[in-house]
Design brief:
27 strands; about 20% strand; 15 helices; 6-stranded antiparallel β-sheet; TIM Barrel; Jelly Rolls
Length: about 650
């Protein structure tokens, strides 16, 4: 018979063994070093998935189980026979374990044709989203995985515990027990200084904001947002542009010089939409009531709005009207004089702030990468009818600054590929027949570019002519994703009244704007730019900074440098509210880029910076005052970064 001492000793050994195996780190850990420009690690797949094949031809998904301590984007790549191939990944579950299935077509093939850049490159999943960066190649001879991050913030860590392959979509799943989103729509797996923990706390903060004074006079704005100290005539009743002493300006309907200081997506209750909740219900601690901001879309996928719920908590049954009134009060308080693109009609139809519109129904197609089939019978008549229908409600409205034609067409620098897509179509649609005729004698890169550019010329001229016939308002052009080559600028100069572009950068290049002004002879507007960070559970936006305070610094630095250029007369910050924390419906983006968070509270440093800049923009653009010259610390963009590791 065994002694009591022997039994105790065996039990002790068993406890030690159980503890050892239960505490084993059965995952690979990568610690991103924030002192590095690029930090990461490559390692053999055999170290974590020894049975994984090296030929992935028969598979459609690679499935990662991981936990990352930040929502900051990171790159996931694989070394193959033809080199290294990677994508950007953003997790909706930072600090929680996540199973994310990545379609392998994103590594193999170029992005499918879509009408704009966001739809082309951003791909939503249920527990994260993917941006199609990097090169494409066959997945043969796959032997290692790489994970790296550009300019990591606060030394984040990723733990990867499995890599598997699947032939069919296995779905995504949040693997934690604590909900990712709390009852206010906030990120629930982390904390920050002014996070809300109770309705009473939130109500106190709303009450404090309501008590703030509004001194709109400090911006020296006229009725329409022009400068009261700079009236040049009695006005025409509509906005126009003028070049005065070598500097361009808008002129408002009453004849005051005007700079359009705008924000995109101005709408109450934003930043808190939760979509496809029937497929990821374990992400949410509590959902809004079914009779408040809860619906099913046309595909039957349930959605809810925490933003709307918080407005109801703030204002009660009158939340729709009172939240719009508060938006207009905030614009007065912060010096914002323009409601820019994609904003709520409930806000701009108040006719209390200048606003912009985008034309509708122009026949733009995703399959044509943002072009229209201008060769189709009756195209000009259809455009005329579409433009007439778009502008009729606002034809006599002096608050309307003008119309944009479109946003970030994706065909730029993809002309030859677009021609391949057109030629590959099975039907005999007019644009295909026109292209076949055009290339009948010579088919080369130059001819293909000329065809697409000529198609674009026909499109913008047809739209521009219709707009002149039916509207007294300005043609604000196309919000290009970047300033295009000179050939495109030449086509735009006789059609647009203002040349518009989006510019996600530390600040827009002076040389770039000089070229644009020289080629078009038109003043310029910036349709989108922003800065974000990672402390609220959302991805850091297209340009990242290290903190909320640095977001304000970055705004002042960018905006004032931009307006010091004699050709820039308008800008729109993207956007009013943060994006939806679990991803916007169409493409999954979840950027911390707003002026206002999901709990309907302003970001203090951001809006204070906007106010300070608005007070001096007239002097900056006049050349009488130097722009703000404090650059944000360690701001970084979203572009491709060099193929370095831990450097």
């Amino acid at each position: 018979m065994k002694s009591l001492k022997q039994i105790y000793f065996k039990w002790f050994l068993l406890i030690i063994l159980v503890s050892f195996f239960s505490c084993r780190n059965d995952y690979k850990t990568i610690r991103f070093n924030s002192e590095m420009e690029v930090s990461g690690k490559k390692f053999a797949l055999a170290e974590i998935a020894p049975d994984l094949p090296i030929n992935w031809d028969g598979y459609e998904f690679v499935v990662l189980e991981f936990m990352i301590t930040t929502p900051q984007r990171f790159h996931v790549g694989f070394t193959t026979e033809t080199g290294y191939n990677e994508l950007r990944v953003m997790s909706y579950t930072p600090n929680g374990w996540n199973r994310l299935a990545i379609p392998l077509k994103f590594y193999r093939n170029l992005p499918a044709a879509r009408s704009d850049l966001a739809a082309t490159y951003n791909q939503p999943r249920f527990t994260g989203w993917i941006n199609l960066s990097g090169k494409r190649s066959p997945l043969v001879g796959v032997d290692s995985i790489g994970i790296r991050m550009n300019a990591p913030i606060d030394n984040p860590v990723i733990k990867l515990r499995s890599v598997t392959l699947a032939k069919e979509d296995p779905g995504d799943q949040y693997l934690g027990d604590t909900p990712v989103i709390d009852e206010f729509g906030q990120y629930n797996l982390g904390e920050w200084d002014d996070k809300i923990f109770s309705l009473e706390q939130l109500q106190e903060e709303w009450k404090a904001e309501d008590a703030l004074l509004v001194n709109a006079e400090e911006y020296n704005y006229s009725k329409f947002g022009g400068y009261l100290n700079a009236r040049i005539d009695q006005g025409t009743g509509f906005f126009r542009t003028e070049k005065i002493d070598g500097r361009w300006w808008f002129v408002d309907p009453e004849g005051y010089l005007f700079l359009s200081v705008g924000v995109d997506c101005v709408s109450p209750g934003g930043g808190g939409n939760a979509v496809r909740i029937d497929q990821r219900s374990n992400l949410y601690k509590e959902l809004p009531p079914e009779d408040l901001g809860f619906n099913s879309n046309r595909r039957g996928s349930a959605s809810a709005s925490f933003g709307t719920w918080n407005l109801f908590r703030r204002y009660g049954e009158d939340y729709r009207e009172k939240s719009v009134d508060n938006i207009l009060t905030r614009m007065d308080r912060w010096g914002i004089n323009t409601i820019a693109n994609w904003s709520s009609a409930n806000v701009y139809n108040k006719n209390k702030k200048t606003f912009t519109q985008q034309l509708r129904g122009l026949g733009i197609e995703g399959g044509l990468m943002g072009l229209a089939d201008v060769y189709a019978p009756g195209f000009a008549e259809k455009i005329d009818n579409a433009v007439k229908s778009s502008v009729e409600p606002y034809n006599d409205n002096p608050w309307l600054l003008g119309y944009f034609t479109y946003n970030e067409p994706s065909w730029l620098n993809q002309e030859s590929r677009l021609c391949d897509m057109i030629l590959a179509e099975n039907d005999d649609r007019p644009i295909k027949q026109e292209l076949l005729n055009y290339l009948a004698d010579v088919d080369n890169q130059e001819m293909r570019v000329k065809f697409i550019h000529n198609t674009f010329r026909i499109f913008i001229k047809t739209v521009g002519d219709a707009l002149k016939r039916h509207s007294n308002h300005l043609n604000l052009g196309i919000r290009f994703g970047h300033i295009p080559e000179n050939e495109i600028l030449e086509l735009c100069k006789d059609v647009f009244d203002v040349f518009s572009f989006n510019s996600y950068d530390l600040y827009p290049s002076t040389d770039m704007m000089d070229r644009c002004l020289e080629m078009t002879g038109k003043p310029m507007m910036i349709g989108e730019y922003h800065f974000g960070t990672v402390d609220r559970g959302m991805a850091q936006a297209l340009w990242q900074v290290d903190s909320q305070q640095e977001r304000g610094v970055a705004y002042r630095y960018y905006t004032e440098k931009a307006y010091s250029h004699p050709g820039l007369i308008g800008s729109a910050y993207f956007q009013w509210c943060d994006q939806d924390i679990t991803g916007r419906r169409n493409d999954g983006e979840n950027y911390n880029c707003g002026l206002v968070d999901v709990t309907d509270r302003p970001y203090k440093y951001q809006v204070e910076a906007m106010s300070q800049t608005a007070k001096k923009l007239f002097e900056v653009h006049s050349g009488k005052t130097s722009p703000f010259d404090q650059a944000p610390i360690r701001a970084r963009g979203h572009r491709e970064f060099p193929d370095v590791w831990n450097e």
